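W.,

You were right to be curious about this one. When I first looked at the sequence I had no strong expectations either way, so I just let the prediction run and decided to look at it fresh. Below is the sequence, 204 residues in total, followed by the output.
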Amino acid sequence: MTPGWPATLTHDRVTLRPYLRTDAATWSEVRVANEGWLAHWEPLSAVSWRQANSPAGFKALLRDLRKSAKVGVSWPFAICYDGKLVGGMTVGNIVRRALCSAHVGYWIDERVAGLGITPTALALVCDHAFTAGALHRIEVNIQPHNGPSRRVVEKLGFREEAQYKSYLYINGEWRDHVGYAMTVEDVAVGGVLARYLARRAEAA
């Protein structure tokens, strides 16, 4: 047991929960169906996309995720919408002591993109991280041309703080990233989710 994990976070139709062994078939179907949507944002695998994202590939991934969660360096969440797995969000590189920081990465099924699922999920994770998770800082690093992902963090009030040259080896090349961050001091009374929902209501 580590601060903030395991956890299940819910708002309306969106739920984040730990992955289950029984997620293998659904996870594989979603990932395989989204190759064209996701593959260019992710590291290359030694095997094909279909093989890497097969039920067997999920089981191998789950073992690694559970190991890292057990030692407190990550929180791997499945994103569910109306109870169905539609994406993933991992709080990783968790560092305690004086830093109390982590990075967040996420992916979503293109078939439900644009419904507010990802910003809701990220807001839930931030509120959890700054309370039960006892973290001070959350970072999200995004490729400059990934407009949809950048809009997610901007909707939630993340600051653009840095430009990282050749930051990660993605899809066969070293890719630049834009660094966004939020600290607990940036969070308004009520939390990140409450602020996002209020802004969304104002814009409606």
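Here's what jumped out at me. The longest strand covers residues 84-95. And, maybe more interesting for your project: Residues 9-203 form a domain with the Aminopeptidase fold (CATH 3.40.630.30).

Coffee later to discuss?

I.
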